[in-house]
Each structure stands twice: as structure tokens, then as C-alpha cells.
Design a protein that fits this description.
It is built from two helices and four strands; from the N terminus they run E-H-E-E-H-E. By secondary structure, it is of the alpha+beta class. The two termini are 14 Å apart.
Length: 87
């Protein structure tokens, strides 16, 4: 496959998935504003099963986020070299 940023041919091992044109943080902030959310520890639950991961504590809000992300996120496969990682 070809990196849309560098034009280089890359393998899956040499790639990562990026949000574009909105970065994940921008997408999450837009969702927060749309839902009029105040960030707090009570908003999230943390899973500690060997990996650190967070999710919304409220299932209905989690489903809204999944739908919002699905409708608004554009994902690209890019070369890790964009991040300064030697590939």
C-alpha cells in the first residue's frame, strides 16, 4: 500500500492508522461540545486487564460516541516515518 502523506510504499508493519483531517483529539472535543459534557473521572470507566483503556461509564453515551465517530472520523493508513519512527 502507499502512504498518502509521504507517497512511500509501506507494509502493515511500517504503518499506523491516523485520523484525518480532524485529529482524534479534535473529534473528541467536538463530540464533548455537541453533548455539552463536562470532563470528569465519573464520566469514564477504566479497564485494567493488562492494558490501560477507558470507556464511557454510561452505555448510552458510549453508543452515541461510537455512532458519532463512525459518521465523522476519516481514517488513513500512514507510514510510521511520518511520526519520526524508523521503518
Amino acid at each position: 500500500m502507499q502512504c498518502p502523506t509521504t507517497g512511500d510504499s509501506i507494509t502493515l508493519k511500517e504503518s499506523y492508522v491516523a485520523h484525518s483531517p480532524l485529529h482524534f483529539k479534535e473529534l473528541a472535543e467536538a463530540f464533548r461540545k455537541n453533548e455539552d459534557l463536562v470532563l470528569s473521572e465519573q464520566l469514564f470507566q477504566v479497564y485494567r486487564n493488562g492494558d490501560f483503556a477507558m470507556s464511557f461509564a454510561d452505555e448510552a453515551l458510549r453508543q452515541k460516541w461510537i455512532k458519532y465517530h463512525s459518521e465523522n472520523a476519516t481514517l488513513e493508513i500512514r507510514s510510521k516515518s511520518v511520526l519520526g519512527v524508523k521503518v
